[in-house]
What does this fold into?
Amino acid sequence: MSSAEIPLPAGRHAAEREQRRIWWLVAVWLLLSLAACLVIWFVWYPHLPPGDMTTSARHQQFDIAVLAVTAAPVILGVFCYFAYVLVVFRARPGDDSDGAPIYGNAKIQAAWIIGTSMIVLWLFVFGTVELIVPAGAGAGEGASPIWKQSGAQTVAWTPGTNDILQVQVIGQQWTWSYRYPQFGGMESTVLDLPVNTPITFHVTSLDVIHSFWPYLLGVKADANPQVDNVAYTTARQTGSFIVRCNELCGIWHGAMTSNGTVMTPVAFKVWATAVQAREKANGTLAALPPYALTYDPTVIPQLGKDLVNVVGVTGAPGYFYGPGNPVTP
Amino acid sequence: MSLTARVAALIVAFLCVVGVGVFVAVYYIGSANQLPTVAYTASGGVVNVALQEDPQNNSTTTPDWVTYYTQDPTTKQWLHTTLFSVPAGTRVNVTIYGYDGCTPLRNNYWSKVQGTLGNVVTVQQFNKNNRPLGLTTTESLINSWATCSVGHTFAIPDLGLYVPVASPNAQNSVNNLCSNSPCTPASGGAYSLEKFSFMSPSQPGSYRWQCLIPCGGGFLNGNGGPMQTLGWMAGFMNVVST
It folds into this structure.
């Protein structure tokens, strides 16, 4: 005769006590989860990286906060149950008897499957929306972006309008430079941008793979040779930021940084126009290759020839000349 | 296997791992520190730095790598190092002897002189007999793609200093480059003499400098070998307090 058929009074009391403890556990978990979510949302969220300097950064900050709020109850549930098991649901000293047999529990299994499925589906839907709405979330979308940023594609850029500012980011071991096609294709070692303006980055490389990472802008796009990788953002605040390389690219990878500034549209226009005029005057613009989305570094556009075929060129990337040949690269 | 044998095996394995670690540290990290640092001191409020870039070098391991040399201000000897120090907040006059032939820039933007006083350099060409060719010219841009006139660059990105270093005239340099490093004006190679000045930062620190031309011949994209090794086409300028 088993105890399941004729429950003993002591067993019934134990089961009721166990159920009360479970409800206590659930209550504690709910309270802790509520407190954690409130702290995350109202205290931690405003200080989460990467800040809210741009639309993409702001969305990333929002994403991290939402994910933290989603994860907090799950983590706390694990910790609460862990604490419950350590303190309550355990063998007492001197108790060498077997534990109660475990049988399937349809309610628990269903709750587990439905709960985890809901969380995964929520993350899928939320992640997809947050990828689409901010036009790729500041990530490189390749040469043909699926989610494009709204704004007017113009040859010349005018402050105070919805004109998209195009900026080409060129990675080279081990430095960055930036071309502005709407300002005559002028090039700069600093990345200056206007605030409240839709910006399109065209990221490429002249040698190995780099990764354009202006952390505070919430933008990160791989710089691949002969690939135009497009990323979008809109700056919301003025201020300075640093551009880093986020792809191990050689001995000076860690030092491959440059500076940038988000300024007012009028100040940006003044700066860009001045650089364009200066580079036109000193011959830099004429020396640069015509603006293109990618460049073949083995070809000199002005000469229309491969480097190795140009008369007088004594070296070229990847070509080896022995010490016996005095015309060494 | 007995307990003693197991313990012995464990100790031997442990010592092997430690030994490999020590070897790597001594062989690689230790050897990296063997580069001497040339200390330049100010005189009359300025400091004079002299460098040269050669198509080859006098090492026994990689004699066909291009390299920079730094001149010791006291002995006037050319040292195979790219580490030098200058006082903080001082005008730095740099002289670079360009003994290597031209290699086109990957990005011709670096043809523009940036960050020097006046954003210019002066250039004088010499033939293999150490006779000047033409007059000394002041340049704000040495178009690497127009006449293939740039050998290497001297860039300190953190200071916004980007200087294209003129090469010997392309036609003049064919079969006329110095072939015995470190080169001297009298060693029988055509060369360019380039001078420029910039202000060292007011605060002490270590500033890396490098060549922006992929001049590592024989390596993928020209960016291996001397481009990736301290003491060849890249180094550090240490700014020390005065």
